[in-house]
Prior knowledge:
By secondary structure, the protein is α+β, with helices and mostly antiparallel strands. The chain has one domain (about 1-290): ApbE-like domains (T-fold). About 30% of the residues lie in helices and about 25% in strands. The protein has eight helices and 17 strands. Strand 1 (about 1-10) and strand 2 form a beta hairpin. Helix 7 (about 250-265) runs antiparallel to helix 8 (about 265-275). The chain starts with a strand and ends in a 9-residue tail after the last strand.
Amino acid sequence: MTAVSWRDWSCDVTVAVTDATALSRARGVVERELRAMDAAASRFRADSELTQVNTAPGRLHHVSPLLAEAVAAALRAAELTDGLVDPTLGRDIAALGYDQDIEVVRRRPARPGHTRADRPSHGWRDVHLDGDLLLVPVGLALDLGATAKALTADRAAAAVNRLTGSPVLVSIGGDVAAVGEAEWELLLSERPDDHDPRPLTTYDGGIATSSTLARRWTVDGTELHHLLDPRTRLPAVSPWRTVTVAAATCLAANTASTAAVVLGHDAPAWLTARGLPARLVARDGSVTRVGGWVSEAAA
């Protein structure tokens, strides 16, 4: 195994391949996928397709195949979780202060307080996507952040495998996609400065971690995080500080891990019913494992 890492999207990006001669090409593929998704789905770029859609709600937009794919993935995540993962909270997260790249938000001077966006009369079911035609109702703005990151990991890993033939692992901010017959050893950490990472072995498929610890900022002395509960439109108050899920794809894993944080105490039963191996870390650091997740001591 040979790997290379760098920073992009305000997170660590890693690509690993079993064929060392494929590493340079693999990195190029991942970088292209990152750039393409950023241009399509970033809500922090004035020139992104998503920004154009969000600034003109109520109009029918012709969008690129990539943005259509990202929106379809987000709407499917909402459907599978009965709205626990909601892509229409863009106005809410911006009103709470997360309206630029997280590194910019953290460097801002203290703000006097935050506001809440008006409660919209529409919801995610009212977003219409038909081929390349997208309509977002007035009062809503899309935020595809979580699902788009996981989708990009899946797309990048599949593209590297097609181009090089090498088994590959792609990690974007801890959202991991692996394609090809290979065994990968990962270190599972809750945050970049975690000095006690846990070993984890993965194969072809996806692993994603959702956490209330990583993307945080302070407004009026209150520390906020980026995982909103659609029922309150505020940062989720959850017994879990971190949830890691393994699934067939990174997108499926991310959908489940995000839903689990928002769902709270019912998350273990919800994950078990769906046959998803998961590791949930409570606010006090205690660990709950479900769905056949092997304990670190047994690994």
